[in-house]
Amino acid sequence: MLKEQLEKELPQILLTSVQNIIHGNHVKGKELTLDHSAVFPFKLTVTIDWNFILKWNNEWIAGGKPAAVHSGKDLNHFEAIHENHVDDATNNKIRRLDFINDYKNAGSRGLVYNQNKTIHEYPTHSYQYHCDQCRGHGEYNCSNCTGSGKKQCNHCWGTGQVQETYTEYNYSNRNYEQRLRYVSCGHCHGGGRTTCYNCSGSGRQQCSTCSGYGYFTYYRSSYLVAIPYNQYSVNCQKHAQELIDYLSECNHEHLYQQIYFNGFNYELNGQSYERFTYYGDSFITEIFANLRSTQHHIVGYSNPPLPFIRSGIFDQLFIEEITALEQYQDTGKKISKEKALKFFNEFSRQPVLERSLRGVAKHRTSTSQDHTAMIQELCSYFITQLSAQRLSNGINAILDKVSPAYSGIVWSIAAFIYFISAGIYIEYLFETSVINGVWSLILEIISFLFFTLLYYCLYSIVTFLLSVAVCTYKSRNVPTEFRQKIRNKEPFFTTAFAGSFLVIMMGVYGYTAYNKTWLPHAGPTLLNFLFKSASYIIPDQLVHKYCQRDNTYSYYSNEKLICRSKYFVDMNQFSDRTYFIMDPKSRIQTFLRNDNPEIIVDGKIGPKTKEAIIKYFEKRNISYNKNWSYNQIAVQMEIANREY
């Protein structure tokens, strides 16, 4: 009678639970109907072998005190104690007696308590050994003075004498003159050596390895731990292996709640382990259901039945959405904003997809994050992994359109402007600077890159705010629970990495252009393109390919020749609207200092500086026009000093 009742009730309970899961997702739950079913009992046997082993923790302390059990400096005695503990943990049944009795008293409930358990703690034992660094002395020769206690004086560099300036009256020209003389060094009193600051003159310093103790104390704390090893077996007509695979992944609390365990058995099976066997009984319910002419096979266990074999019902229900998403994912096309809104509205009307949208919006932390497991769980696993993955990728793409986490356009434009400017600047800087060797180049690039990224962090504050504003505007029509969290960290690091690569490449190009004459000098041209009227420009025009002065080009006020290349610069194109990045007056003074070190770079042009300008051009056989502005003078000086 009971069997007939269960065969009638359990399939209907399982069917109803599945109907509730799919209801509202393109179908009504009642559309899933039962074709036929079967109910049969099964027996579950859970065997727990409790293994008893020794676990231990080691600790080293410089100058530590001996433990309760101490072996002095005898390592063999220390290891012998450990071996005794290992043997005791494995073979001493008295130590585990209380543990076994507790499990016996728990009855079938003991199945639940299958976690590792420490049942005995052995006394900590120790031994001592010398520090290898100082050989047990606790100190060694000072590394700063090599044990002498004295160091070369840094003021006189070991000579014992230093230069001193004094004033003396010169009777021949009746002037006071500054002269130099050597006097005894006041820091080392003429000895050339001072007391070593590191060891205070002792020549010895404390051993940093053992903190001056000269020895270490090695401690070992040991524990007797019971570790369970679980085995499962099922006796039933069908689906035994599938059920074992499923139940072995469940915790024992779940098994105890869902399966009736009617007894256990304890047996002595070995010296190092004890065996408990638990016996349970329940039912397997198998149904074949029909949904719109498609049959689905579902199998559950326990009463009420819990599915452990599921069909892809949601694959059938969401076939249109999955097929539409496949067209984009398989071809690599981007989903348009209009199409994304259409998907979003359609997904919002399906309970499972609506919860998926909420979950992704709430928990998404990266652009490529996979939500397959979450979608499978929301579908109660009535969906295949491939379909769940399709939906995961599709939901990511949809939310990026209707509720973006950052504005890629804002970050791209801002980063492009910043790093192109930085790249052009470093290219010009390295193209016009003397850098000695590859290592100097690397250090210069690292230094420049550090400050570039530092300023980019400050620059990105504005980009961050603009990105947030754009995202907020785009998400204005989307309910709050479907809006993604702002993730500006992603584009920041992406643009910083790409921009750093650009800056490095531009720096290498500038260095190469300086050292290789065959490589075009791009710096002035790029700066002219970047800054327009406020630029550091030397516009060059390649006219001929031979090394000979050609006076037919008298239209040009200046020309500079190199072997096989001839460059002309038209001074008429420069005016007061042409500026250097730095103050042109300071730039003029910088050039003048090459001939006259007395010129001070202060941005002020006085009579002395004007006279130096005339001499500068006369020395280089360049005609000087007094009507030139300071900008034109600076440009002409740049032309005269530039190496092509």
TrEMBL record:
The chain crosses the membrane at residues 405-426, 438-471, 492-511. Keywords: Membrane, Transmembrane, Transmembrane helix. It comes from the Bacteria. InterPro entries: SSUH2_homolog. The keyword Transmembrane helix applies. PANTHER family: PROTEIN SSUH2 HOMOLOG. This is Peptidoglycan binding domain-containing protein.
